[in-house]
Amino acid sequence: MRFPVYLHKTESNTYSGFVPDVVGCFFAGETVDDALTDASAAIDSHVESSTDAGYEVPVATNIETHIEDENCQGGYWAFVDIDLSRYEGKAVKLNITLPQNLLTKIDSYVDHHREYGSRSGFLAALARKELANA
């Protein structure tokens, strides 16, 4: 998930910022790159502690959602990509039924798109995409 982050240059010529979609998530760094690295770690830590406590994973919105916010003026916008799949819980084996021709097409697609890793990875990615749009 791509989280928009807002950062600004401080009086001491370092950078600090926050993640508008993740309440209480702040970050800082000596350079912009350092700040964005810290932003990634901050989001990751926040999501991990939130899901451990039983809360939902925050949903990233677009920059336009926050562009008029008085706390987001005079600085810079960036995006930080976070892989949220590791917070979905442990894998569970299940038995499903699919038409043979569909299964053959899925397997062929996965063979040519190794980023999915497996049939299960492909089906999980599609489910995540659809659920994010819900």
From TrEMBL:
<dbReference type="InterPro" id="IPR035069">
    <property type="entry name" value="TTHA1013/TTHA0281-like"/>
</dbReference>
<dbReference type="InterPro" id="IPR031807">
    <property type="entry name" value="HicB-like"/>
</dbReference>
<dbReference type="Pfam" id="PF15919">
    <property type="entry name" value="HicB_lk_antitox"/>
</dbReference>
<protein>
    <recommendedName>
        <fullName>HicB-like antitoxin of toxin-antitoxin system domain-containing protein</fullName>
    </recommendedName>
</protein>
<feature type="domain" description="HicB-like antitoxin of toxin-antitoxin system">
    <location>
        <begin position="3"/>
        <end position="127"/>
    </location>
</feature>
<dbReference type="InterPro" id="IPR013321">
    <property type="entry name" value="Arc_rbn_hlx_hlx"/>
</dbReference>
